[in-house]
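lol ok so funny story. i was supposed to be doing the assay writeup but got distracted and ended up predicting the structure for this chain instead. priorities right. anyway since i did it might as well share w the group, maybe its usefull for someone
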Amino acid sequence: MANHSIPAPAPASAATQRDLEDLAREAHVPLETVAQLYAREWAALAAQARITTFLPILTTRKVRAILRQQLSSSRVPVDINVHTLA
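and the output, tada:
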């Protein structure tokens, strides 16, 4: 297997920073929370990636899906949503 380096997430890039800000605004969560989630998902995707060109797009989509899922589950009545607290 070839030894290739995987680029680190680039939240400092203007496009990525805008994406993170948009995600935070859409989900009504702090930017820091979104940035941490982005870094975690980037690492998970990058660990298996052979081609890294689309990692920023794939990571943003994954984070958006996670945030939407959390948002929709938070709208469920508390007595039904107890299993998410464990």
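The mean pLDDT is 81. Residues 22 and 52 are 23 Å apart (CA to CA).
back to the writeup now i swear
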